[in-house]
Write a structure and sequence with these properties.
The protein is an all-alpha fold. It contains 7 helices and no strands. The longest helix is centred in the middle third of the chain and has 29 residues.
Length: 188
């Protein structure tokens, strides 16, 4: 569904510095949980969204916990967060106005989760450690489900034609941003 595949160099870079990747991965899971809670705080009047975002926040926090356990088992000291260039550039594409803003938050969430699913699947297919392959395969499936969740929520609150048209724009925006970023041992 994504308009551009992750360059092969990304996987090589991640596997070469997997400890650095884990540090970034943990930060991203924590931020994903916080984003879901932000949606709860901003849209308490939307019951379908509220229920799903509460579940998502807990699931992402669970992923954060799992990654932190991996890091601690490997003797990795968590480092301070760095700005996520990818997410920050996507956020700049979110339109103003209550309806446009809400739709774009949902669709930006969908595209971020879709990219995460793709990248976790790449790690699952290539890592030498069998337990990490299984872990990232499970995460890939989870992220794919989150991608669908955000699209389904968009279709609850907006008509299908509006969602479809803006989704195609988001796919293009995301591909351009992803391809323009430097390749680093980061999730994005």
């Amino acid at each position: 569904m994504l308009k551009a595949s992750t360059p092969e160099r990304w996987l090589d870079t991640v596997l070469h510095d997997f400890n650095e990747f884990l540090n970034d991965h943990a930060a991203n899971e924590r931020k994903a949980s916080a984003m879901a809670m932000s949606m709860v705080a901003h849209y308490p009047d939307k019951p379908e969204l509220l229920a799903e975002m509460l579940d998502l926040a807990l699931e992402e926090l669970g992923h954060y916990r799992q990654v932190m356990k991996l890091m601690l088992a490997r003797g990795i000291t968590p480092s301070p967060d760095e700005k996520d260039l990818y997410v920050n550039q996507l956020i700049k594409q979110i339109r103003k106005g209550p309806e446009s803003y809400f739709l774009d938050r949902l669709l930006s969430g969908a595209v971020i989760e879709a990219r995460g699913a793709e990248r976790f699947k790449l790690i699952a297919s290539a890592h030498k450690d069998e337990s990490l392959r299984r872990f990232y395969d499970n995460l890939a499936r989870s992220e794919a489900g989150h991608h669908e969740l955000f699209l389904n929520l968009a279709n609850i609150y907006f008509d299908e034609k509006t969602v479809s048209a803006r989704w195609q724009q988001w796919l293009t925006i995301e591909a351009e941003i992803m391809l323009d970023l430097p390749i680093r041992a980061r999730l994005h």
